[in-house]
Write a structure and sequence with these properties.
single chain; eight-stranded antiparallel sheet; 6 helices; 28 strands
Length: about 375
């Protein structure tokens, strides 16, 4: 195999596929990046068997030559060394040549590296996905939906299914739900294309976080294909495969209260900053707890008390408030995560009592909600 390639395009592709490569793998060859050159261009693949990423660099794009393939072929190179090498090469082009016994030469300007490669035939094959039912989402919307839900997945392996985000497709809508059983984040959006299939799958939170980092901020659609145990995201020149989590996601619709006893409308930014200040004295240990209570005439009070440190009290005016008086305690971190995920300047909070979960939504927007379970403090 032999080709000459623009260095910056190679660096970009290497960085993308590196997101799937891990040093902690049971299959030694997966610590490498697979490189295949054909007359169409060069394909790089990285995988840790949970996530696989394939990046394609075409021979030319918009009339500019990017790769010159002198001899098609393939090689697997140690990802750690290869990625560091290409980043630090001196010139704008790189020549890569594979000789006997997978000995690989990387040249750029006056620099020449020799690396021992591995047989690309031994690299595990990527899952073959039948592309029957695909649906599309604009890239920026997909990234937003991931950002607004993925933070709420569980980090504990005691219930592995909760480390993923539940994606449901029905009636032309996609809904994404994440919960760690102390809080829940949900976001819905209509999907493009006359897609009639119905799905209910759980995607590892880690996969979605990595996907979100790789995707550009464009409105170009990403094509999404779901099979029994894999999901494939197809963007321009990029394939991102992730395995799905096995098992049934708990039915979360019952958790979301339908009635409410106290309702508040608040300015999102002011409220976030007040919670942030109150949490300054609540950081000790894991009792990162803040209290909210309604006081007279639409005022609310945010406070925190750590006996050994001190206490903080702040009053805020709500835009509107109705219903019963309320005193409730909750995790400042959960509240701040939720507020950062919501869009819009004003938020609406529905409480159904001091010990029941409460729901936060942007004003006049039903496509997104955050739910938090309060903390018992007395």
């Amino acid at each position: 195999m032999k080709f000459v390639i623009q260095r910056d395009r190679l660096v970009e592709s290497v960085q993308d596929v590196m997101k799937a490569v891990t040093s902690r793998t049971t299959i030694p060859i997966l610590t490498g990046i697979k490189i295949i050159a054909t007359n169409e261009g060069v394909t790089l693949t990285g995988s840790d068997s949970d996530i696989s990423i394939e990046s394609f660099i075409p021979v030319e794009e918009e009339g500019t030559e990017i790769v010159e393939v002198l001899k098609p072929g393939g090689i697997v190179l140690q990802a750690k060394f290869f990625s560091e090498i290409v980043k630090k090469l001196p010139m704008n082009t790189v020549e890569l040549e594979v000789g006997n016994h997978f000995q690989t030469v990387i040249r750029s300007g006056k620099a020449e590296f020799n690396l021992n490669g591995l047989d690309p035939e031994e690299y595990p094959h990527l899952p073959q996905i039948e592309e029957g039912n695909a649906f599309k989402l604009p890239t920026d919307l997909l990234k937003t939906m991931i950002r607004q839900t993925v933070f709420a997945v569980s980090t504990s392996e005691t219930r592995p299914i909760l480390t993923g985000v539940n994606w449901k497709v029905e009636n032309g809508d996609l809904s994404c739900i994440a919960t760690d059983s102390h809080r829940l984040a949900m976001r819905k959006a209509p999907i493009e294309s006359g897609h009639s299939g119905e799905y209910n799958v759980v995607i590892p939170g880690k996969s979605l976080s990595e996907l979100s980092k790789i995707l550009d901020d464009t409105t170009e659609p990403v094509e999404i294909v779901i099979t029994e145990n894999q999901i494939l995201f197809k963007a321009k020149h990029l394939l991102f495969f992730s395995r799905l989590l096995e098992g049934n996601y708990p039915d979360t619709s019952r958790l979301i209260p339908t009635e409410s006893k106290t309702e508040l409308t608040l300015m999102s930014k002011e409220f976030l900053q007040a919670i942030d200040r109150a949490s300054l004295l609540a950081r000790e240990g894991r009792n990162n707890v803040v209290k909210l209570s309604t006081i007279e005439e639409g005022m609310i009070e945010v406070s925190s008390n750590s006996p050994e440190i001190g206490k903080v009290i702040e009053q805020l005016k709500s835009e509107s408030s109705s219903g019963e008086e309320l005193k409730i305690s909750f995790s400042a971190k959960y509240m701040m995560d939720a507020l950062k995920a919501l869009e819009g300047t004003e938020i609406h909070i529905n409480f159904t009592g001091a010990m029941r979960p409460f729901v936060i939504r942007p004003l006049h927007d039903d496509s997104i909600l955050q739910l938090i379970l309060p903390v018992r403090t007395y």
